[in-house]
């Protein structure tokens, strides 16, 4: 918004030095983006904060300046001229949620011509081009009050009727600027006569009923339109035509006052039209209130203001500060907010206004007592902390990635993903849906590390994934290459077994045991080979080598492995009671077996059979070695297994251990067709 300080000064009852006015503007939600000495003051370019549309008129700025400098606002004459008759005009509002109030005044005997020099000067300083006296009056009152308005040529309106409704299918509206619009723009709200649309509500008038040099009858519209709907329509026009906003829409889409300022602006414009065009008011203006707007009311004790500001504020100071800004304040701290302050939706905003009036520089800094607080703890949080600690202790690094991703990226990764939770208004196509896996973000982090020369990575993330809301907590990780520093003897790169052992250790540190079952990846699966992660008989996740086509990392010289675990499935198994047994005073007895079995039989299956048949004295089953060679039948391998037996109350005899081993060998043969290596 542009204005000259000399014009602003006309609305204040005592002179304020122009330099002081400009310096005070930041305290009134106004950012001074440019200033220039012009004549006896400053020409300033102001950026009004979006939450303060009441300052999009010079009277709103004057109200702020008067409060800051403890003076009064001089309100210009707004005497509604007497009506020459009782002519009435019909107004019908079909969309009360989008148009809460609509007023219409009819003028006859209008003489179109240039506006006075003083008005043209003000408009030029404000960055507007003078057109004619009627149009200039509507623009002048808009920048004076912040209330947009529009003048129609009454002779071009059919049926002596205004209907505020949405644009219908098949209808078009030829705007003053730009291309015609139709219902494909989203059925925008229009101001129509009895037959067709004549203006895009709150944004721009149409060509068919605009005022011209031959206009002698004018209908003045002063109304309130819904900010969200106006903003939506401006965006629709801009997206289709490249431009679409106006000075009116700039104010409407931020919110105008449907009560006091609308009334003042209507009276002010009517008075100027009669004065500057020689017209007469044909009848009392029509005023249709489809949906009243009531002021907000808050209770704001001085004690709360003191807590929010951080210093002691006396009740009298609170009342004085708010009263200066136009609030009504009672002795029992009840504050009525004027409807031109559309930003005041909480008592905290009132406290901020008090702080502005006091002056931030006048609020002394105080040392505040620090109080340690403890966040709410729960089982799910303790589980995440335990697994986090286990991975960090193993040398892994935690990452935090964006919870948004592209629909195509997730689909490529997950194959047949669950339905995506899409954003209604995404900033970019790459941030269109809530993520359904943590792996995309981890792979992006891996790519950045590789581009910076990292020889390997060990990254994990614990956060929500969103098949549904509110999402489920998930643990995922990516590993590959040599993540630690190199040494002269070299280092072993991460492989499947490294990752498997890390997961086992992390869960063991959290008091749980996991097992693994092999997975036969299906065509199109992101895994080349891997295993499901089990707790008991329940699958809680997967781990494996990732397919390079899906998990593509440019310039990576190593294989990439990953895992993903559903922590919601893990949580019921966490913090189960732990059973302890005293350390035995008696020695253990160990036996080694070389078991020959088919290659597809996993050690997990062999361990299950051994534990089931080894008896209650079997303490431990360990895989010691694997051998594959021509000495064995094709499709077979030899697994060296160590069995440890112990009795807590006595020393086992050789015969007892042998009997247990024979039972194990017999059962392996019966269930898995496995035998001892000769």
Structure description:
The protein has five domains: 2-69, 2-Layer Sandwich (Phenylalanyl-tRNA Synthetase, Chain B, domain 1); 90-289, Phenylalanyl-trna Synthetase, Chain B, domain 3 (Phenylalanyl-tRNA Synthetase, Chain B, domain 3, 3-Layer(bba) Sandwich), CATH 3.50.40.10; 297-362, 2-Layer Sandwich (Phenylalanyl-tRNA Synthetase, Chain B, domain 1); 379-573, BirA Bifunctional Protein, domain 2 (2-Layer Sandwich); 589-676, Alpha-Beta Plaits, CATH 3.30.70.380. Helix content is 29%, strand content 24%. It has 18 helices and 31 strands. Strands 19-22-23-27-26-25-24 form a seven-stranded mixed β-sheet, sandwiched between helices. Strand 22 (456-465) and strand 23 (472-481) form a beta hairpin. Helix 9 crosses helix 11 (347-358). It starts with a strand and ends with a strand.
Mean pLDDT: 91
Number of DSSP helices?
Answer: 18
Number of domains: 5
What is the molecular shape? elongated
Give a count of the beta strands, DSSP E runs of length 2 or more.
31
Radius of gyration, taken over Cα atoms and rounded to an integer in Å: 39 Å
Q: What structural category do the secondary elements indicate? A: alpha+beta
Q: For the report, how would you describe the main beta sheet? A: 7 strands, mixed
Provide the low-confidence segments as ranges. Answer: none
The CATH homologous superfamily of the largest domain is termed: Phenylalanyl-trna Synthetase, Chain B, domain 3
Cross-sheet strand order for the largest sheet: 19-22-23-27-26-25-24
| CATH topology group of the largest domain | Phenylalanyl-tRNA Synthetase, Chain B, domain 3
CATH 2nd-level architecture of the largest domain: 3-Layer(bba) Sandwich
Q: Helicity, in percent?
A: 25-40%
CATH domain class name of the largest domain: Alpha Beta
């Amino acid at each position: 918004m542009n204005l000259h300080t000399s014009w602003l000064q006309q609305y204040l009852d005592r002179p304020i030095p122009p330099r002081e006015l400009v310096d005070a503007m930041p305290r009134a939600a106004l950012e001074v983006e440019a200033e220039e000495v012009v004549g006896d003051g400053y020409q300033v370019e102001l950026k009004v904060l979006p939450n303060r549309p009441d300052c999009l008129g010079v009277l709103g700025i004057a109200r702020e300046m008067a409060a800051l400098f403890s003076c009064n606002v001089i309100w210009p004459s707004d005497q509604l001229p007497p009506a020459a008759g009782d002519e009435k005009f019909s107004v019908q509002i079909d969309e009360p949620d989008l148009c809460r109030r609509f007023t219409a005044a009819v003028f006859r005997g209008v003489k179109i011509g240039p506006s006075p020099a003083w008005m043209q000067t003000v408009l030029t300083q404000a960055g507007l081009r003078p057109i004619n006296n009627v149009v200039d009056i509507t623009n002048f009152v808009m920048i004076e009050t912040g209330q947009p308005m529009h003048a129609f040529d009454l002779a071009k309106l059919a049926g002596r009727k205004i209907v505020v409704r949405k644009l219908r299918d098949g209808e078009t509206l030829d705007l003053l600027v730009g291309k015609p619009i139709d219902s494909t723009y989203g059925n925008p709200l229009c101001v129509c006569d009895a037959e067709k649309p004549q203006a895009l509500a709150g944004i721009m008038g149409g060509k068919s009923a605009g005022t011209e040099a031959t206009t002698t009858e004018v209908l003045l519209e002063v109304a309130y339109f819904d900010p969200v709907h106006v903003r939506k329509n401006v965006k629709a026009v801009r997206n289709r035509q490249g431009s679409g906003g106006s000075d009116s829409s700039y104010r409407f889409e931020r919110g105008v006052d449907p009560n006091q300022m609308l009334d003042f602006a209507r009276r002010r414009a009517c008075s100027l039209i009669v004065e500057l065009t020689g017209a007469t008011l044909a009848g009392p203006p029509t005023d249709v209130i489809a949906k009243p707007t009531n002021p907000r009311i808050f209770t704001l004790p001085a004690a709360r203001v003191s807590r929010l500001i951080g210093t002691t504020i006396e009740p009298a100071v609170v009342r004085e500060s708010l009263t200066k800004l136009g609030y009504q304040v009672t002795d029992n701290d009840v504050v009525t907010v004027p409807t031109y302050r559309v930003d005041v939706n909480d008592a905290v905003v009132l406290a901020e206004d008090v702080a502005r009036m006091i002056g931030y520089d006048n609020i002394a800094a105080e040392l505040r007592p620090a109080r340690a607080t403890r966040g709410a703890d729960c089982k799910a949080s303790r589980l995440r902390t335990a697994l986090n600690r286990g991975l960090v202790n193993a040398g892994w690094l935690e990452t935090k990635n964006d919870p948004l991703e592209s629909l195509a990226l997730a689909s490529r990764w997950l194959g047949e993903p669950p339905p995506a939770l899409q954003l209604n208004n995404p900033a970019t196509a790459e941030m269109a849906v809530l993520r359904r896996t943590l792996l995309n973000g981890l792979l992006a982090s891996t790519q950045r590390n590789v581009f910076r020369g990292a020889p390997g990575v060990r990254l994990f993330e614990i956060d929500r994934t969103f098949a549904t809301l509110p999402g489920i907590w998930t643990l995922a990780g990516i590993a590959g290459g040599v993540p630690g520093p190199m040494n002269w003897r070299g280092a072993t790169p991460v492989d499947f077994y490294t990752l498997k052992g890390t997961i086992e250790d992390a869960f063991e540190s959290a008091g749980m045991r996991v097992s693994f079952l092999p997975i036969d990846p299906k065509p199109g699966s992101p895994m080349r080979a891997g295993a499901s992660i089990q707790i008991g008989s329940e699958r809680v996740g997967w781990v494996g080598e990732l397919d390079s086509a899906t998990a593509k990392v440019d310039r990576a010289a190593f294989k990439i492995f990953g895992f993903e675990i559903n922590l919601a499935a893990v949580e019921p198994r966490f913090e189960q009671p732990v059973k302890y047994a005293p350390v035995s005073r008696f020695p253990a007895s160990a036996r080694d077996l070389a078991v020959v079995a088919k290659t597809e039989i996993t050690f997990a299956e062999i361990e299950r059979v051994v534990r089931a048949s080894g008896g209650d004295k079997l303490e431990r089953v360990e895989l010691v070695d694997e051998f594959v060679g021509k000495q064995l039948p094709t499709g077979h391998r030899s697994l060296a297994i160590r069995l440890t037996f112990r009795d807590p109350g006595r020393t086992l005899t050789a015969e007892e251990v042998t009997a247990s081993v024979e039972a194990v060998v017999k059962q392996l043969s019966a269930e898995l067709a496995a035998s001892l290596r000769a």
